[in-house]
Amino acid sequence: MIVQGASAGDEAAWGELIELYGRRVFAMAKSRFGDPDVAEEIAQSVFATIATKLSSGQYAERGRFEAWLFRVTMNRIRDEARRLKRHAHPTDPAELSLQESRPDGPRTVDRGRIEGLRRAMDELSDVDREVIELRHHGAMSFKEMAELLDEPVGTLLARHHRALRKLRQIMQEAPEAENKPEQAI
Amino acid sequence: MTGKEMNGRVGRLASVSDVPRELESIEALVSELARRDLAGAPAGFEERLARATGPMLRGIGDEPKRIPDAPARVLAVISVRWGARIAAAVALLTAGGVLWLAAGRDGGDGPTDSELFAWVDLLEVADAGRPFPGDEAIEALFADTDRFSTSLTGGLDESDLLFEEDSM
Fold first, then answer.
1. For a Cys-Cys bond, which of A8, A51, B32, B70 suits B56, CB 3.0-4.6 Å?
2. What value of ipTM does the predicted structure carry?
3. Greatest pairwise CA separation for chain B in angstroms
4. In a shared domain, residues A120 and A139
5. CATH code, domain with A36
6. Domain spans, chain B
7. Which residue in the set B6, B54, B85 is minimally distant from A14, CB to CB?
8. Does B15 touch chain A if contact means CB atoms closer than 8 Å?
9. Are A175 and A118 contained in the same domain?
10. How do the pLDDT tens digits run along chain A, 185 residues long?
């Protein structure tokens, strides 16, 4: 209903879609690139594409809007990752620390472990990273991810477990003691 | 689903553990990372997103437009990325001038969208009936971005501008 309303040009319905999905798209991009400006830009690009296609009647996937939206999101993220590879801009560790130090509610997890986890995420393969980010940042169920990626749920579950194991291993092998994930949250 | 319900959904997804016990700790850490990234959208994020992309539901923003009877003040924004669409959409909402879009004339990078959003804020000032920002304000906005030094008012004529077929 909301998608139909947005397709018909209803900006209130569009606002509801943004409320439902905007932050999830932002979070996926933020996780990948660490920069909220880049993440906001990617989110805008995604929603601009969605709006343009809705307005031109190109969206025909009845009932699969979420899969389509996250497919566009993944493509944008991949595009930006490729672009950044061509023009390498390493994340300044000081900036990363500054981002983590911004107050965002009660902190129950040591900042160092979060930073360590971000670095560990960078070492995952793209395929493993995507399943982590779709599951946690995109808040997708495995069934929704299976529809998006056109893969069996069991495959994605196994990939998710594998990715978590890799993250745990990377963090355990990191030189700083505070990166150990087993230290209680 | 409201935003609050969405947050609840994320929380439920984060807390339902489908992983072996040995991986619960690392999963919890990943969930915390995701929570921070979800909460880390800057203030006004949804409002800006809706404002910039809402007009596109009506097909606005696909190409540069001229506002009828607008003052003959032309400002060029160089962008190689979709951010130029924001400017096109804003042009239709702003009575104070005309925004033409040029895409990567020199092959260099265009403004970031953060810069374009600052630009949008300037245009909204104009739309509210206050005097249109002068060249000084615009140049101050891009003062530390020398790629704009030859792109703003004063040095342009029609031959500098790209037309609809060159728009993004």
1. A51
2. 0.81
3. 69
4. yes
5. 1.10.1740.10
6. 3-39, 58-166
7. B54
8. no
9. yes
10. 888 888 888 889 999 999 999 999 999 999 999 888 788 878 887 887 888 788 777 776 566 889 889 999 999 898 888 877 765 544 444 444 444 544 444 455 678 899 999 999 999 999 999 999 999 999 999 999 999 999 999 999 999 999 999 999 999 998 755 445 554 44
